[in-house]
Amino acid sequence: MRFELFIASRYLRAKRRQAVVGVITAISVIGVAAGVASLIIALAITNGMRRDLQDRLVGSTAHVMLMRVAGDGIRDWQPLLSRLRTTPHVTAAAPGLWEQVLISRGARSSGALIKGIVPADERTVSDLLKGMVAGSANALEPLVDSDPNAPAIPPIVIGKDMADSLGVQVGETVQVISPQGEMTPFGLVPRYQRYTLVGIFKSGFYQYDSAYAFTRLADAQRLFSEPDLISVISFKVDNLYAADKIGRAIETSAGPGFQTTNWMEQNIELFRALRLEQYVSFIVLTLIVFVAALNILIALTMMVMEKTRDIAVLMSFGVRPEQVRRIFLFQGLLISVIGTVLGLIVGYGMSWLGGHYRFIHLDASVYSIEYLPFAPTLIDGLIVTAVSLGVSLIATLYPSGSAASVLPAEALRYE
């Protein structure tokens, strides 16, 4: 062990003539540990929120969506779909017909976004139909016209929160009201259609579970009186973060009159808010480390005052001023290292417990997820450690400089 580090560790363990110095030292260690633990937990929560939301969004929606610029839908879509499936980096494609409707059951009703789909294709671009909690989405498969068992009432699949809101269960019927009705002498009359609920899905994402519904593409086209029309072609690509470039390639392949959007554009404000929250949390919680660093400065300053005679004796034995400076630099660094290590243990331990047991529940209607996720990363630990040690090291500069400027003759004059 180096001479300076040995003396620093002895000073740190020594019994104090003034108890307040020991108390401030202990508070400094606890303060650094609290600041580091708070930073680790806050960054883990922010990372967990971003990761969880991204996974749910990517799993529940298509990576890229193609629409007509004029918004009047895509006609003669089968040849276009077949051609676009061969676009480089496109791994799957599915047609869909989106419309806003009102779904009611007795006196209860709920606004919904209903999508006419081909289930075999839809499962390749979205995971919503894979999260069934009741019934099955198999009833949405297209029926053969000659099938004698074809039901008179078409099937529908809705989200769990919508099912709870309507008070409906699998096997019961709901009424779908389309605003695209028929013109009569009394004005525009909405179109009504009864559907049999054949399945309930749960994605864990409130936006989808409370507002999304699926039916067969042919049934949706009949409901909206739009035969052989779709509103969107959804794509899954092999690189999430290149979705914008792949989207432009799809636009070029589709020809004029088409435009694409992707999952990043649709949720840019959400991820921007999460990143801003991460920065703000880091800055605010770093203040705890600054407070702990002030305690280190006070503790070392008082220790220099307490050890002035010992410093003078050391210097009279030939210890150089730069060695004295390093003694107190090492002492502040030891306080910071102990506090940082304790903070990392507590921070990563609490983050692991929170992520494993999910004991902090959230209101899904507000936060879109049902529990508070934790995702601690190694890089966050390295950044927090560097900040903690750096701030603490700066706090030791003044007291260590004061110790190095002690004049032995003046300190020992009256001894």
TrEMBL record:
Cellular component, GO annotation: plasma membrane protein complex
Spell out the protein name for this chain.
Lipoprotein-releasing system permease protein
Query: Which residue numbers delimit the ABC3 transporter permease C-terminal domain?
Result: 283-403
The domain of life is Bacteria
Membrane-spanning intervals of the chain: 20-45, 279-305, 326-351, 371-398
The reply to whether Protein biosynthesis figures as a keyword in the UniProt entry is no
All copies of the MacB-like periplasmic core domain together span 25-251
Compartment(s): Cell membrane
| Keywords, comma-separated and alphabetical | Cell membrane, Lipoprotein, Membrane, Transmembrane, Transmembrane helix
Query: What Pfam families has UniProt attached to this entry?
Result: FtsX, MacB_PCD
Main localization of the protein described in the UniProt heading: membrane
Q: Name one GO biological process term.
A: lipoprotein localization to outer membrane
Membrane topology, record value: Multi-pass membrane protein
Q: Which family does it belong to?
A: Belongs to the ABC-4 integral membrane protein family. LolC/E subfamily.
Q: Which InterPro entries match?
A: ABC3_permease_C, Lipoprotein-release_system, MacB_PCD
